[in-house]
Each structure stands twice: as C-alpha cells, then as structure tokens.
C-alpha cells in the first residue's frame, strides 16, 4: 500500500496490466478518466473529481486532498487534468508501474501488424 497526500491506496495496477495487457490497461485508464471528467469541459476538474471520487472508493477525500491531487497532476498549470496528465499521474502513483512504464507504453502503441502507431 502507498500513501499519497494522506490518501492510502493499494497498487493494483501491476496486476491489472498482467491481466489486461498494456493496451487493455491503457484503455481502462482512459475509461477511468472519462468517468471522472467534467463532461462539458472534457477535463477532470476539482468539482468533477470531488463529485465522482466515490467511483474510485475515495468518497471520504477532503477538499484539500482533492485539490492536492489535481495540483500534483496538473502539468500545464490550468487547474485541471487532461487525459495525458491523468494517465501520467496514475503511473507516478504506482511505483511498480514507473519501473516498467517505457515497455508498457511501447507495447500499447504497437499495432496488430507490428507497426508502431
């Protein structure tokens, strides 16, 4: 288990990759993003994360914890998380995923005929 900004979570990502493969795992991350995003803006905002945090089992997150999560992942400084920022944050929160992230990304972007996308 890991602790990030006071939120404790268990790292299930390596097991998910083993089960789904890299491409399937990346699709699941994208699905997770869509569950959490603000449908009108197409990004995860403080409000959308607070409203939908129960979908991740994090319904008890304080406003400060939600703000910290957004701030930690917000690479372009707009106060929201776009899909790439969300995926990057999820990888950063998983120590095991950080170790194998290059291989996973390469596997995810290789087409069925062996060409890279």
Structural features, described:
The protein is mainly alpha-helical and 117 residues long. The protein has a domain at 19-94: Recoverin, domain 1, CATH 1.10.238.10. It contains five helices and two strands, in the order ββααααα. The protein has helices at 13-36, 46-52, 63-73, 83-92, 95-108; strands at 2-4, 7-9. It has a two-stranded antiparallel sheet. Strand 1 (2-4) and strand 2 form a beta hairpin. Helix 1 (13-36) packs across helix 5 (95-108). The N and C termini lie far apart (34 Å).
What is the CATH first-level class name of the domain at 19-94?
Mainly Alpha
Identify the CATH homologous superfamily of the domain at 19-94: EF-hand
CATH overall fold name of the domain at 19-94: Recoverin, domain 1
Strand order of the largest sheet: 1-2
Name the poorly predicted regions.
1-9
**Secondary structure category:** mainly alpha
The outline comes out as: globular
Q: Terminal Cα separation, in Å?
A: 34 Å
Q: The biggest beta sheet, please?
A: 2 strands, antiparallel
Query: How much helix, percentage-wise, in residues?
Result: 55-70%
Highlighted features:
single chain; 117 residues; mainly alpha; Recoverin, domain 1; two-stranded antiparallel sheet; 56% helix; disordered N terminus; EF-hand-dom_pair; calcium ion binding; Putative EF-hand domain pair protein; EF_hand_dom; calcium
């Amino acid at each position: 288990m890991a602790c990030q900004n006071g939120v404790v979570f268990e790292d299930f990502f390596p097991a998910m990759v083993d089960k789904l493969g890299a491409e399937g795992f990346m699709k699941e991350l994208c699905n997770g993003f869509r569950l959490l995003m603000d449908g009108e803006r197409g990004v995860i905002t403080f409000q959308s994360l607070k409203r939908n945090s129960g979908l991740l089992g994090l319904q008890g997150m304080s406003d400060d914890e939600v703000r910290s999560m957004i701030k930690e992942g917000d690479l372009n400084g707009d106060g929201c998380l776009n899909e790439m920022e969300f995926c990057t944050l999820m990888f950063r929160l998983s120590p095991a995923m950080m170790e194998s992230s290059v291989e996973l990304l390469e596997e995810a972007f290789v087409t069925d005929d062996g060409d890279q996308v």
